[in-house]
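Response to reviewer comment R2.3. The reviewers asked that we include at least one raw input/output pair. We reproduce the pair for Putative HTH-type transcriptional regulator YdcR here without editing.
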Amino acid sequence: MLTVSEIKFKQIARTIESRIRDGVYPPNTKLPPHRVLAEELQTTPVTVAKAYKLLSEQNQVESFVGRGTFVCGESQLSSVIQTSDDEDDYNFSILQPCLSHNVPELQSAIRSSASKITSHLTGYAENSGHERHRQTGIRWASQYGLEPGTVQNTLLTSGTQNALAVLVESLTKPGDTIAVETLTYPGILAIASLRRRHVVGVQMDENGMIPEHLQQTIEQHHPKLVIVVPSHQNPTGITMPAERRESIARVVRQHNIWFIEDDIYSFLNEDPMPAICNWLPERGFHVTSLSKAICPALRCGFIKAPSSQVATISAHIRTDIWLASPLNFIIAEELINSGQAFELAERQRLLAGERQKIARKYLPHSTIPRQGYHLWIPLPSHWQQERFAMEAQNHRILVSSGSYFDTQQSCNHIRLSLTAINSEQKFKQGMEKLNKLLHSDPATVFSYQTNPF
Ligand SMILES: Cc1ncc(COP(=O)(O)O)c(C=O)c1O
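Raw output as returned:
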């Protein structure tokens, strides 16, 4: 049975929790000192301290000796992906290609595609997109390991995020469960949360999602859908080897569930890897886009869908956006048909490799060798991930706290994008600052605020 004092501090914790939820205490702000809140809520400082401790155990707040208690940051896409235009910021937060390297080709593709704009291509189109633009999607995805689709089963979307949202909406209902990698892309978690789908994390090892755990999760939680990012996984950077891909497909095939393969980073593989959907022609939806290889602003995404689902998914795309802008696909067509899209993708892959090498020099103890656009860095025990991301921001270094990716809230990591900073020199400066911050003591960092290193 609960004692009176236990009931009291749990009540106080609930009050604070609802204030956090209502925005009275916004993320990353300092909560009132024990004595002040105790006076306001007519209780004792000890009771408030116990309430803070309870909320800290639930990862809602975090306490620091001598500094007070802070509200943890919230898992919102706007916080995980910080799109700063400020020249003084070191942006390690957003996963995008080194854009300045692609701009000249993009400009020339826009110039040469201008003459291809016809009245036919500027009107509403039947079937959520033009056949010639679907052909470009087939070419793009099959270059990186997907068995080529057809113009009938290749659908156009406004980027991968749109594809994921449309698929979740059409394949599941509110209250259904979706199985994902324990650490996953926050865009998937945001779709599930806004659409009231439950998410269950499937354990991973160094080769990605573990098939035996997927099997157990399906038996225990009965998900309707599994979503996997098989190449250069966001956030861990893991690429699933071919055998693991086949084993995952085998587990999915044994059950009556849908499968989405978010293959947006497949162009970063040195050699093409077989898409998991190659083994799942009847249950697998392959999604990808040109955002990471060329630029996010193109918003050109592609779904390869099982034939039985094409009509339903097309109806959902039409209902949401009518059709993804053909004007953007005219540019994509130009880039893909001229072969430039593949050259740009390769250029970015090599550049990412260079950045990985540089990063390892500055962060020698914190990283395992990886390829690709990002690093998933375990923090030293003296740093907590939310606090680190906040302090880094105070020093104009934008990083993403691991909490945004974690379905189990058990990691203490940051994710670093290596390609959002265009200049190599600035990238190195940012790495140096980051390394210093990682090795500093959180208790002393606060005083650096007016003198950022
Ligand atoms: C795994 C993954 N899927 C999808 C997206 C969003 O892609 P798009 O710009 O094509 O919507 C991202 C962006 O970071 C991502 O990391």
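The first strand starts at residue 61 and ends at 64. The pocket of pyridoxal-5'-phosphate is lined by residues 95, 159-161, 185, 187, 229, 234, 262, 264, 289, 291, 296, 301 (CB under 6 Å). Further pairs are available on request from the corresponding author.
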